[in-house]
């Protein structure tokens, strides 16, 4: 038996055990019916997740759409639209068999040709799509239910990549006129909810699709059974956090997403609300332009890192030390197999003035402003860390110009190496390091160091999990030498729910699985 076939059996066996282990927390069933009303901070111009690496595009699609695989609560890929998958003996092909009788929400049959068309588009997109392209020579429809991936090398990463939200399968009608950079006009998918309306300046409404064909395995994050408890899911755009909080307390909404931690006491003291804290949610960071401008100088990037004191930055953003850690790992969830602190400099979190002076002297920096992009809709996670960090940097003569703009402008500007030197961002846990957008050479920041590129190719083609972990630790250490980005710490996610909301997410892997969340009975 080849290593890939052994890995395939281990992956499915281990993941199945993980799903069963998660059952006690999900054992309670809830009544179907009602409307789940969710207050959100921002909306993308389109619900299509393929056209951008920015995660806000993925929310609506995660409720309405599906891919061949999905991630469970242990960050392990599980079959979703796939019935089964198998590697060839030489590991150079991966064959996926689709579940029988699947349909799109429009009523059209799902065929292997639709899978190929959707994934060819994903393959040409930025970020994770580029990683997928790097390990696939071609994708072909063998018959109506069989898809074959011809791989550039034996690699275990394809199921993990295809478990990402950008790898959704769309109908031919949705794909008409769409491209890797041009959004689909509508999302005709296979998921438990259809998108009834989508207005970027107001919100979205999703309606349960009664003909949805759910998997039968126990629910675990995006994998297994999708209960579709609510008749309707409303995503209501409420950019101001205080408005989301107040709307929750008054009963206008059932879930208030992304709340600052200083709202914790108000929600806990109200008998009708609860503050839900999800630990180890994501890294807060700034991505640096390694291609053009002053930050392309590695010594300036090193000086940048050693000038920062992370505690005040995290405190400015999160507001309460109980809701963050100064953890330096690029894998924020310690429960992930990939968690590591390899290469982290001693004294992470504290400035080192001697090293700042050393690296500034070795750089070509002449005091020109560092253009730091932030999205106006992300005041807590973008603007506040940037303003706090800029004050620290300016003590050493590193001048920062904060450029604040609406999300759409921010996304456009950060993709152009001539328009930015740094931009605020954050990083969740991914199923596999090859899926981390920051590590892709096409991701804004454009880190194309030859050693990194070689290590990433090696990581993608190595089968043994322990060997892969060792390679990733080399990448992690290299990032802490060259600083294509700088992490401040790991934040918990806090959001609020009304009394009666059933099965709210309490672990990072749950993400946006609102199809498994039940509205209060009164709704």
From TrEMBL:
Belongs to the bacterial solute-binding protein 5 family. Residues 76-438 form the Solute-binding protein family domain. This is ABC transporter substrate-binding protein. It is found in: Periplasm. It comes from the Bacteria. Transmembrane segments: none annotated. Residues 1-27 form the signal peptide. Its main location: periplasm. PROSITE patterns: SBP_BACTERIAL_5. It holds the Pfam family SBP_bac_5. It comes from Devosia albogilva. Keywords: Signal.
